[in-house]
Amino acid sequence: MASFHVIAGASETLEHTRVRKIGISDLFDALRRGVDDFMVKPSHIVFLCMIYPLVGVVLATWTSGANALPLLFPLVSGFALIGPFAAIGLYEISRRREAGLDASWRHAFEVRNSPALPAIAAVGIMLFAIFIAWLLTAKIFYEQLFGPAPPASLSSFIAEIFATGRGWTLIVLGHAIGFVFAVVVLCTTVVAFPLLLDRDVGAYEAIHTSVRVVLANPIVMAVWGLIVAVGLIVGSLPVFAGLAVVLPVLGHATWHVYRKVVEAPAAAPRPANS
Predict the structure, then answer these.
(1) How far is CA 213 from CA 22, 107, 129, in A?
(2) Cα dihedral: 167, 169, 173, 175 (round 10)
(3) Is the Cα dihedral 25, 27, 29, 32 positive or negative?
(4) pLDDT tens digits along 57-99
(5) Distance CA 76, CA 239 (A)
(6) Residues contacting 156, CB < 8 A, separation 6+
(7) Taking a C-beta distance cutoff of 8 angstroms, is the pair 188, 210 a contact?
(8) How many other C-beta atoms are found inside a 10 Å radius of the C-beta of residue 134?
(9) Helices 165-189 and 203-216 sit at what angle, rounded to 10 degrees?
(10) Measured between alpha carbons, how far is 232 from 68 in angstroms, rounded to an integer?
């Protein structure tokens, strides 16, 4: 790393990245390419992504006590808010495979050698701050409806949520609040991490480019957000084990969405052997 830079790129100036308009068919092509990346060498992907199902089980176990039960859903659903950062190793593998380089699992950790690492960390910290804000908001909202006392038991908690008016208020408005957080993350990071891996443009331009991608393709990006949400829900159903497949496919597909929606620079941003 030649110098420590976060907001701007290596040139210490704010760059302007060009974005394209794409169609729904491009999303499905990106998914197809993501599946292809996953199928070529799935062993390293499973090694990486078995972490996430285990995290889900740990979260469920940790919140099984009555005191933490109200945080179970916010924790599990909020994990999607930090997903773009958690999948950064998968973007690197797709980048290397695209460049014809060795893409074994150990290369997922080559991110640590990226010249844009400070900017990547800055955007990652932003995502974790949003995640914490979501948890606090969910906790406050729950306590406004049910009070600070913890549920008496798991069964009473479930009955209270699904069989009472305030429970359905929590479900409907809680999902609406979560949707706002998800939109913020989608708009600010949809291509931020792949862009930073590909080019050292700085945190500001990475976030700004993501926003411009969404503004240029509002319907397509909304569909992409829906695809991600549905994929995460489906992957979470069998005790989170499905995430070992869903997460790598979505991670690789995100790299290919980035390639479709962001124009390549005039010169290669990173050496082929990096």
Answers:
(1) 10, 28, 23
(2) 40
(3) negative
(4) 666 655 555 567 777 788 878 878 888 998 888 898 888 888 8
(5) 11
(6) none
(7) yes
(8) 23
(9) 110
(10) 23
Amino acid at 253: A
Q: Tell me how far apart the alpha carbons of residues 126 and 206 are, in angstroms, rounded to a whole number.
A: 13
3-state secondary structure of 190: coil
What are 226-234's contacts with CB under 8 Å, separation 24+? 227/27, 227/31, 228/80, 228/83, 229/80, 229/182, 232/80, 232/83
User: Tens digit of pLDDT for each residue in 104-157?
Assistant: 666 677 777 888 889 999 999 999 999 999 999 999 999 998 888 877 777 888
Per-residue pLDDT averaged across 174-189, rounded? Answer: 94
Q: Which two tokens stand for residue 112?
A: 């640590």
Q: Are 258 and 189 in contact (CB under 8 A)?
A: no
Judge whether 18 and 200 are in contact, CB under 8 Å.
no
- CB count within 10 Å of CB 224 equals 26
> SS in 3 state form for 211-267?
HHHHHHCHHHHHHHHHHHHHHHHHHHCCCCCCHHHHHHHHHHHHHHHHHHHECCCCC
Cβ burial, residue 50 (10 Å; 0-12/13-18/19+): middle
d(CA 112, CA 105): 14
CA distances from 92 to 13, 20, 145, 172, 191 (A): 25, 22, 44, 37, 13
Are 52 and 244 within 8 A, CB to CB?
yes
Q: Given pLDDT bands bounded at 50, 70 and 90, which one contains residue 182?
A: very high
